Amino acid sequence: MAITSMLLLIGLSTHIMMSNGLIPYIDSGFVTAKVLDKKLEGVNKQLVVQNEAIVNIGDNLRGIRIAQLEAQIAEVRIKQCAWLRDQPGVAVSSYIVNSLQRYRFTYFDLVSREYPVPTCEELGLQ
């Protein structure tokens, strides 16, 4: 009985010393704040890099969409000018007018300014 109690006491003392990091060269088994901060610092750096990549992708997509809208506005305006040239006195198709307005509104929402729609003369379609 005395030997069992003594072994239990030694084992318990050893366990407490190890868990508190009091025995050199043996890890306590718990994460310290210093180690955790170092790991979180690495994770935060990765998040910053990923966020920058996402912002760059967003900027690229925005630029592509602006170019698409400018091309669509020009295309619809050419159709509108051709209609006015070929059918003078006839009202322009509401589809053409609505398409042009929709593209212009979308452009405005994207860049916060109106797109300068070219005149028929500028397009060479008097």
Coarse structural class: mainly alpha
User: In terms of per-residue confidence, which ranges show pLDDT below 50 for 5 or more consecutive residues?
Assistant: none
Strand content: under 5%
Order of helices and strands: HHH
Summarize the structure.
By secondary structure, this protein is mostly helical.
Explain how this protein is built.
The protein is mainly α and 126 residues long. It folds into 2 domains: 1-30; 31-126. It has helices at 2-19, 33-86, 94-111. The chain is rod-shaped and about 115 Å long. The N and C termini lie far apart (112 Å).
Key words describing this protein structure:
126 residues; mainly alpha; 2 domains
Layout of strands and helices, then pairs:
Blueprint: H1 2-19, H2 33-86, H3 94-111
